[in-house]
Amino acid sequence: MTRRLPPLNAIRAFEAAARLLSISNAAEELSVTPTAISHQIKQLEDLLGIKLFERSGRNITLTRQGERIFPGVTQGMDSLAGAFEETYGKVDLNTITISTTREFARYWLQPRLGDFYEQFPSLVLNVFTSESCVDLSGREVDLAVRYGPVPAEDSGDVVLFQEHYIPVIRKSPVDSKDKTVDIADLETKRLIDVRWENATLAAPSWKTWFEQSGKEGFHHFKRMNFDSYHLAFDALKRGYGAALLSQTIVNSDEFSSELVRIEGPQLSGYSYRVVVAPASQRKKNVRLFVDWLSG
Amino acid sequence: MTRRLPPLNAIRAFEAAARLLSISNAAEELSVTPTAISHQIKQLEDLLGIKLFERSGRNITLTRQGERIFPGVTQGMDSLAGAFEETYGKVDLNTITISTTREFARYWLQPRLGDFYEQFPSLVLNVFTSESCVDLSGREVDLAVRYGPVPAEDSGDVVLFQEHYIPVIRKSPVDSKDKTVDIADLETKRLIDVRWENATLAAPSWKTWFEQSGKEGFHHFKRMNFDSYHLAFDALKRGYGAALLSQTIVNSDEFSSELVRIEGPQLSGYSYRVVVAPASQRKKNVRLFVDWLSG
DNA sequence: TTGAGACATAAGTTTTTGATATTTTGATTG
DNA sequence: CAATCAAAATATCAAAAACTTATGTCTCAA
Fold this sequence. Notes:
The structure is a homodimer of 295-residue chains.
Chain A: H1 8-20, H2 23-30, H3 34-48, E1 53-56, E2 59-62, H4 64-88, E3 95-100, H5 102-119, E4 124-129, E5 143-148, E6 158-170, E7 190-194, H6 206-213, E8 222-226, H7 229-237, E9 241-246, H8 247-250, H9 253-256, E10 259-261, E11 267-276, H10 284-294
Parallel strand pairs in A: 3-4, 3-5, 7-8, 7-9
Antiparallel strand pairs in A: 1-2, 5-11, 6-9, 6-10, 6-11
Helix pairs in contact in A: 1-2, 1-3, 1-4, 2-3
The first copy, chain A, binds a DNA duplex (30 and 30 nucleotides) through helix 3.
């Protein structure tokens, strides 16, 4: 048995365009430019010697001959897709998968999600947290919000904001005024530092803070070190000591009413930036999401 | 709706290899080298992260996972092929389509076809005659036997034999000995020349023959000119005159017993050569046929 | 009449594909 | 049991296909 088939890529382009009745939408679905689709369809038409679409400036329609071919093609593509489905997974254009840190997801993204779903009710957001850098060349993740130095101008990455670290301690139940506290009054407390998993970034530390503030007495304090913010938060909430927390966290619902700021400087941190996976850069919904993020 | 599919060409390679359980046979079917198929399948395996075939040196078998994918893929390809079938035609590997001149087909090929079908009973030969050069870049014709100057060494064309033109006239019923005849005895006959459709080739002519033979009297003869051999043969058989016929025709069943040679030189003609269409060069049966032709 | 949206066309670049040559693997044979 | 043979894998490189950017055309709507 031998089949005689036109180029398969051209067939795929035709199928998408015929189904969506739009070159541009087909292009988006296949993650290429409309030009590419136009080319492929022209190639197919030339090869078959027939017109598949009627072009009328603004939109396209299938010709009679195109209509005759289309059903079998769609069915065939469905069958192929079905064969690979369980092995290869599905993609849903309405689902956006984002990779970021636990902290960004919990304290920045999460509180704003209500607004997002209000604006884009049909979208589904898939949040995937991990401290390490996730590979964006695969098809698993559409974009990542990463924390680190400001990227080069031409990287195409969108910078969201710069992080700052604020010295805080649990608000004393006794004196619940919203004032600040002097570090000198906290000699019974410990200084809580968190070690970061990513050793290439410099974590904020009380040592640095004392240096920058010009205050004395760093060495008189007891210390507490943690590997993760999870435990550090707990220690902070229990009133064990003072911590340098990112403004994002300090301002969050969970913490804003519980903490009181310690007098002295805030430490500058790195920036959050959005990195879009190459394969997802054409997805309209991904672009919308990035606009919303940075907007 | 969006489908997530591996590269379609890789899918096609997989399908052919899985169906034929052979990389090389799949390669032949798709008109590429086994290397290409091997590449494509490897690409697919890497992408899916699973092994599709079990290799054991001499032959391949589907793995369990390959077996699960295969049916849907075959079905899908069938469906695609079906969609384009009526528009795009079918190819049968057992059918060889040859383009050549009417004369070659009738007087050289036809008498030998019995032998051919005896050797290759399963093949179907499609003979397509035309005096003009048929385009071999299309998929209509597998090979052409063409008449003309000897091709360049590196053209890849196979030369069958050189043609010669022999001066003949109808054997007289009266004197049926197999001797030759002197042109001087034929003053009552006419000289039959045929004009060729392809003006770029020099047709044999009585004028040339007289020049080469050194004989006198060319201008004393009456002449007959035809556009096609069909009419010239008729005139020859009716005994109207003498013609310069190719050895192929003179030796054919139809003519060998009816003609008698006229004394004098034979004229050198061009050569028959086999030109194989690029798309057909890998077809095993086409190669077999060419081997048989050049024999 | 002008501007925006959708597609076509042209030219150049990148990616993918496939060919040649060579090596590896396992079956077959003397 | 080595020698041989066929099929497939691999490496390197060239050719072809696909894609992008830039530009042009056409239609519809304001």
